[in-house]
Amino acid sequence: HPAGGETEEEKQRVDLLENQLMDLRMNFARLCYSPDFEKLKPAFLEQLPKKLQELSRFLGSRPWFAGQKLTFVDFLAYDVLDQQRMFVPECPELQGNLAQFLQRFEALDKVSAYMRSGRFMKTPIFWRTAKWCNTKE
């Protein structure tokens, strides 16, 4: 299926990145739902730059994470990176190629139209039992 990459290399990149992104997403969700959120937050923030640097290196100079064409993993990457951008707006690791990736994704015709529509909700990200981003702003 083309949404999962066309070449063997693209398929491998998608497979690898999907797992890396889901690990980051689940670690972030565990943090945000933890009753010890404030206590655990510094450790999460300490490891975040390394995770983002790895994603930046993986993306490299490609427009999309698998290569030249958009795949489903780019949707997942956008979601995970956008949440981190909201969580740590001043994060230097979210500059450069990762910022360009986010801008490129948001500029896709259908994504851009949706984000401008009345149906788009930036928040909440998590259910109200979470300690962060649990209400509509």
UniProtKB/TrEMBL annotation:
One cellular-component annotation, GO: cytoplasm
Residues annotated as domain GST C-terminal: 7-125
EC number(s) stated in the UniProt entry for this protein: 2.5.1.18
Biological process annotations from GO: glutathione metabolic process
Main location: cytoplasm
Keywords, sorted A to Z: Cytoplasm, Transferase
Keyword check for Cytoplasm: yes
Localisation per UniProt entry: Cytoplasm
Gene3D superfamilies, alphabetized: 1.20.1050.130
Protein name as annotated: glutathione transferase
Provenance organism: Agelaius phoeniceus (Red-winged blackbird)
Source species taxonomy: Eukaryota, Metazoa, Chordata, Craniata, Vertebrata
